[in-house]
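Propose amino acids for all 214 sites.
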């Protein structure tokens, strides 16, 4: 039985931003049918449980069941299980347009209209998915994008946020790194509270520790 949802389900602007930010990060859209529809899959490691549930609460009217815990890997050396959390948005036609924006021939790409997509909320989610703070510099793990897409990223950040990430070589791939001043400028426009379990992506570990000791 098809689980496609009718158009009576309303997707808010914030929900679209969260979906797009998730797709820039770790989430994926699945389009398995020929009915021009798709569904979103959110899947994060055990330590990101709170973050998964935050996304679930934000997208709750689009989801049929709460996040589930699954075994993602078994260590054969000690037979220890490692767990992760995931949930799906229901399949519906409104996600097909987003799918066609983020995928080409079944492979995720950097959207050509990223400058229209990347607002503060989408960026916040992207950082919570794929960012880290290294010595007060923001790193975005954009290794799945080509060098040409990284040049496109630079242009978008320059026009949208007056910042420009450096392109760092990471083995045979590339990732985006903002200098300290650009990092401050980026965080300044993120006026939405972060999920506590992702705070380390915004505050360097050593800085966070100093604050804890006070």
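Proposal:
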């Amino acid at each position: 039985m098809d689980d496609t949802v009718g158009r009576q389900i309303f997707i808010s602007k914030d929900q679209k931003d969260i979906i797009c930010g998730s797709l820039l990060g770790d989430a994926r859209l699945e389009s398995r049918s020929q009915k021009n529809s798709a569904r979103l899959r959110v899947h994060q490691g055990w330590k990101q449980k709170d973050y998964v549930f935050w996304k679930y609460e934000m997208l709750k009217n689009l989801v049929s069941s709460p996040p589930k815990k699954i075994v993602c890997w078994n260590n054969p050396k000690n037979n220890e299980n490692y767990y992760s959390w995931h949930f799906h948005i229901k399949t519906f036609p409104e996600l097909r347009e987003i799918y066609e924006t983020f995928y080409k021939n079944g492979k995720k790409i950097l959207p050509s209209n990223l400058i229209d997509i990347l607002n503060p909320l989408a960026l916040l989610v992207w950082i919570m998915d794929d960012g880290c703070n290294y010595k007060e510099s923001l790193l975005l793990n954009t290794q799945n994008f080509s060098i040409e897409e990284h040049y496109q990223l630079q242009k978008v950040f320059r026009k949208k946020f007056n910042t420009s990430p450096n392109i760092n070589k990471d083995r045979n791939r590339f990732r985006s790194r903002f200098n300290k001043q650009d990092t401050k400028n980026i965080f300044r426009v993120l006026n939405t509270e972060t999920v506590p379990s992702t705070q380390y992506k915004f505050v360097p570990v050593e800085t966070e520790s100093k604050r804890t000791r006070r």
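Helices lie at 13-24, 49-58, 94-102, 114-117, 120-130, 147-161, 180-189, 205-213. Residues 207-214 have pLDDT under 50 and may be disordered.
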